[in-house]
């Protein structure tokens, strides 16, 4: 039987010898110091502190030693491993800081560099205003109707009770196209879309018609030979002036703000009977006519109201001309300037920038460019 191996000399176990442990530790620390980046440090950690590193292997040998030798070797190796792990942690901190700094430099954005980004273009404020108006009516179940800007004289005038000799024809300075005997005009109003709608569909009719119109006006701060209108037309059974008033009050409130309503002043249009000019309550002074400073309100010029458009109950002669039986149906119509509405909504005194295509103007109204 063999007794305990008291002759066993731990010095003979090479990996546990002091010089070997020191050499392994020095090699580890040298590799850690040389690691130039986090990737290299990872490799150094694996080689010198991993399961198969010399110090880990030496550590495994300790268990086979007699108690005293085990203690010495344990302390020696423990110290060496501690040195290595401290060196690893310190190098990790340094390399991480370097990495972060490098990323900051590499990812720096030079905001002063020239850009080749092109402007995407934007929607014109008048287009947006037309769509806004159309949307208000679509929300009430109305439809949007359109017609051509080059229009038959008959639809622009005659169908709307403006016969050839009607004095009101001269009020709308008309662009006629050549040859004159073709009787074609640039439409002077959006009202021919009323006639087109009644001729092509049966009541009930609830349509709104935004569009471009033309008159031989001088181009100045308040006139342009081309501008925009929006027409409304309702034809149904039992329609009265009260429906018209309620609709316009709602329209005004939606466009200019809650509580902004309208008033009617008696007027004349050949296509409506009775007819009215419609004013909208000033949305700045809210009808008080004086500003908060006590001066006359600048938006409505101290009137409390702003002229907005024309309206009325559809003339039975127009219904008849467009194939609608006036004994069964009645209707109302209205027409407003879109550019004008836009101008007083935004406090503009001059309408020309609306037609001159400068994006710096459009951009000021929040259109994307
Ligand atoms: N077409 C008219 C104009 O350009 C405006 C107008 C007035 C339209 C009364 C209407 C209306 O539909 O009923 O001056």
Automatic annotation (TrEMBL):
CDD domains, per database record: PheRS_alpha_core
Superkingdom of the organism of origin: Bacteria
UniProt keyword Ligase, yes or no: yes
Enzyme's top EC category: ligase
Residue intervals of the Aminoacyl-transfer RNA synthetases class-II family profile domain: 135-353
EC code: 6.1.1.20
Spans traversing the lipid bilayer: none
Binding residues annotated for Mg(2+), in chain numbering: 273
Identification of the protein by name: Phenylalanine--tRNA ligase alpha subunit
UniProt keywords, alphabetically: Aminoacyl-tRNA synthetase, ATP-binding, Cytoplasm, Ligase, Magnesium, Metal-binding, Nucleotide-binding, Protein biosynthesis
Quaternary structure, from the entry: Tetramer of two alpha and two beta subunits.
NCBIfam families: pheS
Source lineage: Bacteria, Bacillati, Actinomycetota, Actinomycetes, Propionibacteriales
Cofactor: Mg(2+)
């Amino acid at each position: 039987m063999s007794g305990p191996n008291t002759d066993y000399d731990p010095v003979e176990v090479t990996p546990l010898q002091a010089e070997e442990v020191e050499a392994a530790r020095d090699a580890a620390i040298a590799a850690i110091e040389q690691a130039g980046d986090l990737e290299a440090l990872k490799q150094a950690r694996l080689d010198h502190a991993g399961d198969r590193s010399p110090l880990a292997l030496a550590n495994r040998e300790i268990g086979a030693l007699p108690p005293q030798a085990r203690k010495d070797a344990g302390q020696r190796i423990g110290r060496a491993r501690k040195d290595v792990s401290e060196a690893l942690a310190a190098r990790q901190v340094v390399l991480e800081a370097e990495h972060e700094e490098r990323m900051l430099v590499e990812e720096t954005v030079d905001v002063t560099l020239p850009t080749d980004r092109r402007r995407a273009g934007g929607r014109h404020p008048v287009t947006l205003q037309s769509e806004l108006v159309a949307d208000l009516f679509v929300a009430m179940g109305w439809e949007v109707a359109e017609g051509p800007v080059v229009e038959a004289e008959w639809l622009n005038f005659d169908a709307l009770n403006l016969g050839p000799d009607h004095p009101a024809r001269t009020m709308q300075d008309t662009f006629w196209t050549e040859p004159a005997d073709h009787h074609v005009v640039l439409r002077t109003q959006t009202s021919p879309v009323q006639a087109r709608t009644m001729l092509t569909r049966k009541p009930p009719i609830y349509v709104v018609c935004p569009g471009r119109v033309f008159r031989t006006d001088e181009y100045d701060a308040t006139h342009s030979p081309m501008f925009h209108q929006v027409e409304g037309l309702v034809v149904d059974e039992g329609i009265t002036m009260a429906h018209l008033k309620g609709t316009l009050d709602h329209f005004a409130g939606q466009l200019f703000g809650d509580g902004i309503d309208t008033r009617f002043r008696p007027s004349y249009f050949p296509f409506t009977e009775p007819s009215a000019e419609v004013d909208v309550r000033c949305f700045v002074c809210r009808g008080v006519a004086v500003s908060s400073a006590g001066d006359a309100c600048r938006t409505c010029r101290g009137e409390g109201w702003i002229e907005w458009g024309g309206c009325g109950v559809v003339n039975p002669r127009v219904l008849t001309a467009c194939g609608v039986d006036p004994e069964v149906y009645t209707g109302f119509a209205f027409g407003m300037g879109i550019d004008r509405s836009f101008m007083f909504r935004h406090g503009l005194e001059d309408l020309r920038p609306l037609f001159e295509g400068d994006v710096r103007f459009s951009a000021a109204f929040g259109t994307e460019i």
